[in-house]
Every structure is written in structure tokens, then in C-alpha cells.
């Protein structure tokens, strides 16, 4: 036996019985949702074991399978490492290897919830109105074949099979950073179902539940260094470990098929009637400033959130943006002080143990900016409130894109459209107008109101100016 075999994690108890299929078993879910579910089962019981599904590659399955699905969630703070063993994942399936096995798992009567973290782009929306993108290659496949590729395709086919078998539907629980994520998922699932069978679409609309949620925990990508540190400091050898900050929040609309769910409230999740004020607060105050740091910080040569927040010019910029532009655009959730929330975010960003790469946050800007930056920006303009800082973030995104315009380096599902929009433009103004004409991002907004200001900000945001005086560029 090798050293690795001797120290390998194993189950100490039998795997829990399955109640959940989770689509998109990335680090975020393993460090957030799965931890709540483990704790809720430990506190209140219930059969809520999770079959995890990787929709693309076998990487996570290959790490988890030798450990029987057991992994370590490691809290990182000034107090050091705090490991917690998570043993609720009973199996991991890799969809492209065997899509039928994924459908079989979802159609099993024991499954009452299908949750998903597939990131913004995983919802395959297209066009300005956010409808299902029927030209998306995965959606084309899923409408033509019984073996889906997209998360939405799996949900529709599985619900179809359940209905044919006379089973109850499952609850579809989206944990992605999108406004009204449940309502949005309901809409595109019903759009696809209507193309499969109109009775199916009616059944889903009347019987299925799609609760909205707000999820929050900062989960930086794992690194070989942290895996080695975990081993060194705790003796745990776990190549499948995930790391996270101490903070966590989960606000869930209490709307589940037949009321079937883990007792989330027993372990600190908030079950509420209306998630909207929570999700807008989090999307704009946290994710919006994250994106601001990602683009401005990258242009300024910073690599992590902690480095960016400790840059006095960026820190002052975020303060003004929170106070003058984001908070005025929000309705505070019950018992929440938004200024306190901003102060707490600042502390979370400053956690020196968390190496959260700006590059990780900068990806998929086309999918993130609308709800994080553009919605408050245009709401402010319509209400006569200031929006200069939010415009500066858009200009920073444009500068970031123009610096990486060779296509290879833009990590975004519509990178080819973004590059086409930037190509061959004679001057800065033409480039800015080109990007503003990308419909998937700017279609719903009156962009003529911001074009002149954006050109000025884009020009001010040259690398040279930034290196000379970032404070002036951001003022
Ligand atoms: C980040 C989020 O990568 C990103 O876009 O803004 O992943 C963020 O860390 C989480 O939403 C925090 O809950």
C-alpha cells in the first residue's frame, strides 16, 4: 500500500440515502450547500444524501470516487485552518460518460430535490429578453435527443419521465448568482418543456416548485499549496478538499414540492417568503464590487481581492460606489443595515488567508455585469441618482477586454462576439460603441445615455494613467 492509500479518506458510516441530485458539483456547492445539508441531516435527520453530477469533465469524480465521496471543507481565517469532513455525497456521475445514468438518478422516487450550481452561463439564455437560447448547441441537442447535455435539458427530460411514470415532480433549487434565480429557471424549463410536450409544460407549471435563493460564501480555487498545507497542519491528505471563508449565508424561498426539504433553518439558513431584497443586496453590494475589483484591479496589476481592497484608491472608490450608487438603489432586507453589510464585506475581502484570484471573478463578464452593475446603473439614471462609479466599472471591463482582444484570453461564453465587436475599430469611441452594441449584454438598456461618458472613462483608464495615478482615474 502506498502512503496515499494509507491516509486516504474513507466513510466511517454508511452513505446516507439519496434525496437530492445536484447538477454542477464545483467547489462552491461543496463548500456551501453540501455543508448545510450535512449539518441539517446531523441535526434533524432525513434522507438527503446527494448524487453529484459533473456536467462536463470527470475531474471531481476522479478525486472523490477513491474517497467514497467523502471530502474536507476547510475554513480559512486568522485562526488558521478549520477542517470539516463532508460525507453527504453518496455518488458522483459524469454526464457526458453516461447521460442515461444521470436521468435514472433524477427519476428515482427517492429524489425530491434537484439543485444546481451551473454558473450564469449554464442557463443557456440568449438575446436581450433572457429567453432560452434555441440556437445554443446544447439546447439544440437536448430538443432533438433523449440524452441531454445541458442542465435544463436534464431537468426537462427527467420531469417528463417522472410524469410518465406517475411520480411527483422534484423541486428545482437554483443556487446561482442570478436575480430571481428560481423564477428564471422555471421560465426556461417551461420554455423547453413546451417544445417537448405542452402537457408536460402545464404539469411543470402547476406541480413543480422553483424556489428563489440567495447564496453566499467566498470560495477561492483550491491550490496544490493549500492541499499540502492541510496535510502538513492537520494530517489530512485530501486532494478533493475545498477551502472557504468563515462567513456563509443562504436565504431560501420556502416553496418545495409537498414541503419536502432538509431542515435548513436548524443550521442557520433563512427560510423566507421573499428573497428578492436579499439577492439584490448580495448581487449588487458583493458581486458588483467583486467585478469592480476584478477589472480595475487587474488593469492596475493586482492579482487578488485582498491586494485590490488594500489599494487605497480602489478602497475609496468602492466606499463611494456603495454609499452613493449601490445602497440608494436597494430596498434593505428585513433587519439589515446596508452600511453594516458593506463594512462586513470590506472585512471579508481583507481576509489574508483567502487568496481569491481576480482572474477567477473576471471571467464571464457578459453573464455577470447586467445584474451586478448595469441594473443599478440604469435604475440610478432613470431615478436621477449618480451612476459615475458604476459607469467606471463598465469602462474598466471594456479596457480589460480590449487588452485581451485576441480571443484566446477572454474567458467568456460570448468571447467571439465581444472580439468581433472590438475588431477593426479606428478609435476608442468606435470600440466603445462597438461593445455597447453587443445585444446579449446591452440589449435591454438605453445605452445612448451613457456612451459619451463611457468613451471618456475608457480613455482615462489607460494603463499609463492607471500606473501614474489610479486615484485620479477613479475619481
Ligand atoms: C464571485 C462570486 O466569481 C465571482 O463572480 O463574485 O463567486 C462570489 O465569490 C460569490 O458569489 C460569493 O458568495
Structure description:
The protein is an alpha/beta fold and 475 residues long. The chain is 49% helix and 12% strand. It folds into two domains: 3-272, Rossmann fold (3-Layer(aba) Sandwich); 276-474, N-(1-d-carboxylethyl)-l-norvaline Dehydrogenase, domain 2 (Orthogonal Bundle). It has helices at residues 3-7, 27-31, 33-44, 59-64, 99-107, 137-144, 151-164, 181-196, 198-207, 224-234, 276-299, 305-309, 312-326, 338-349, 358-362, 365-383, 388-403, 415-422, 428-436, 439-442, 451-460, 463-474, and strands spanning 18-23, 49-54, 71-77, 80-86, 89-94, 113-116, 125-126, 131-132, 171-174, 213-216, 242-244, 249-253, 270-272. The protein is globular. It starts with a helix and ends with a helix. The model has no long low-confidence stretch (mean pLDDT 95). Bound molecules: D-mannonic acid.
How would you describe this structure in keywords?
Rossmann fold, 475 residues, N-(1-d-carboxylethyl)-l-norvaline Dehydrogenase, domain 2, alpha/beta, 2 domains, three-stranded mixed β-sheet, single chain, binds D-mannonic acid, 22 helices, 13 strands
What is the share of helical residues?
A: 40-55%
Bound molecules: D-mannonic acid
* Number of helical stretches of at least 4 residues: 22
Lateral strand order in the biggest sheet: 5-2-1-6-9
Protein topology:
Layout: H1 3-7, E1 18-23, H2 27-31, H3 33-44, E2 49-54, H4 59-64, E3 71-77, E4 80-86, E5 89-94, H5 99-107, E6 113-116, E7 125-126, E8 131-132, H6 137-144, H7 151-164, E9 171-174, H8 181-196, H9 198-207, E10 213-216, H10 224-234, E11 242-244, E12 249-253, E13 270-272, H11 276-299, H12 305-309, H13 312-326, H14 338-349, H15 358-362, H16 365-383, H17 388-403, H18 415-422, H19 428-436, H20 439-442, H21 451-460, H22 463-474
Helix pairs in contact: 5-7, 7-8, 8-9, 11-13, 11-16, 11-17, 13-22, 16-17, 17-21, 19-21
Bound molecules: D-mannonic acid.
Residues 177, 216-218, 286-287, 290, 360-361, 368 line the site of D-mannonic acid.
Protein name: Fructuronate reductase
Keywords: Oxidoreductase
Domain Mannitol dehydrogenase N-terminal: 19-264
Amino acid at each position: 500500500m502506498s502512503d496515499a492509500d494509507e491516509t486516504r479518506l474513507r466513510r466511517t458510516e454508511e452513505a446516507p440515502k439519496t434525496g437530492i441530485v445536484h447538477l454542477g458539483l464545483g467547489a462552491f456547492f461543496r463548500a456551501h450547500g453540501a455543508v448545510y445539508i450535512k449539518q441539517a441531516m446531523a441535526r434533524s435527520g432525513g434522507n438527503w444524501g446527494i448524487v453529484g453530477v459533473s456536467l462536463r469533465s470527470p475531474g471531481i469524480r476522479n478525486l472523490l470516487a477513491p474517497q467514497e465521496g467523502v471530502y474536507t471543507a476547510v475554513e480559512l481565517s486568522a485562526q488558521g485552518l478549520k477542517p470539516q469532513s463532508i460525507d453527504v455525497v453518496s455518488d458522483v456521475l459524469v454526464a457526458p460518460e453516461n447521460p442515461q445514468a444521470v436521468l435514472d438518478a433524477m427519476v428515482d422516487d427517492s429524489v425530491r430535490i434537484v439543485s444546481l450550481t451551473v454558473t450564469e452561463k449554464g442557463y443557456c439564455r440568449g438575446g436581450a429578453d433572457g429567453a432560452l437560447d434555441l440556437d445554443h448547441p446544447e439546447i439544440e441537442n437536448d430538443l432533438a435527443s433523449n440524452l441531454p447535455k445541458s442542465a435544463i435539458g436534464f431537468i426537462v427530460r427527467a420531469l417528463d419521465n417522472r410524469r410518465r411514470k406517475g411520480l411527483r415532480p422534484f423541486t428545482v433549487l437554483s443556487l446561482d448568482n442570478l436575480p430571481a434565480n428560481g423564477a428564471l429557471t422555471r421560465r426556461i424549463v417551461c420554455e423547453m418543456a413546451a417544445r417537448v410536450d405542452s402537457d408536460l409544460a402545464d404539469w411543470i407549471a402547476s406541480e413543480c416548485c422553483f424556489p428563489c435563493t440567495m447564496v453566499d460564501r467566498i470560495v477561492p480555487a483550491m491550490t496544490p499549496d493549500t492541499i499540502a498545507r492541510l496535510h502538513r497542519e492537520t494530517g489530512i491528505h485530501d486532494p478533493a478538499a475545498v477551502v472557504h471563508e468563515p462567513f456563509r449565508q443562504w436565504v431560501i424561498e420556502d416553496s418545495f414540492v409537498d414541503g419536502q426539504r432538509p431542515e435548513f433553518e436548524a443550521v442557520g439558513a433563512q427560510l423566507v417568503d421573499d428573497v428578492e431584497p436579499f439577492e439584490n443586496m448580495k448581487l449588487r453590494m458583493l458581486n458588483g464590487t467583486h467585478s469592480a475589483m476584478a477589472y480595475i484591479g487587474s488593469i492596475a496589476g493586482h492579482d487578488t481581492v485582498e491586494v485590490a481592497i488594500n489599494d487605497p484608491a480602489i478602497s475609496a472608490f468602492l466606499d463611494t460606489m456603495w454609499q452613493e450608487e449601490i445602497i440608494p438603489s436597494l430596498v434593505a432586507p428585513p433587519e439589515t443595515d446596508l452600511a453594516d453589510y458593506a463594512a462586513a464585506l470590506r472585512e471579508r475581502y481583507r481576509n489574508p488567508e483567502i487568496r481569491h484570484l481576480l482572474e477567477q471573478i473576471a471571467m464571464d463578464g457578459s453573464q455577470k455585469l447586467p445584474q451586478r452593475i448595469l441594473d443599478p446603473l440604469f435604475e440610478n439614471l432613470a431615478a436621477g441618482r449618480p451612476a459615475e462609479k458604476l459607469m467606471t466599472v463598465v469602462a474598466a471591463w471594456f479596457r480589460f477586454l480590449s487588452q485581451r482582444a485576441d480571443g484566446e484570453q477572454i474567458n467568456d461564453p460570448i468571447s467571439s462576439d465581444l472580439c468581433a465587436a472590438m475588431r477593426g475599430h479606428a478609435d476608442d469611441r468606435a470600440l466603445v460603441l462597438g461593445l455597447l452594441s453587443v445585444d446579449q449584454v446591452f440589449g435591454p438598456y438605453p445605452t445612448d445615455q451613457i456612451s459619451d461618458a463611457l468613451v471618456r472613462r475608457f480613455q482615462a483608464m489607460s494603463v499609463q494613467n492607471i500606473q501614474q495615478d489610479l486615484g485620479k482615474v477613479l475619481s
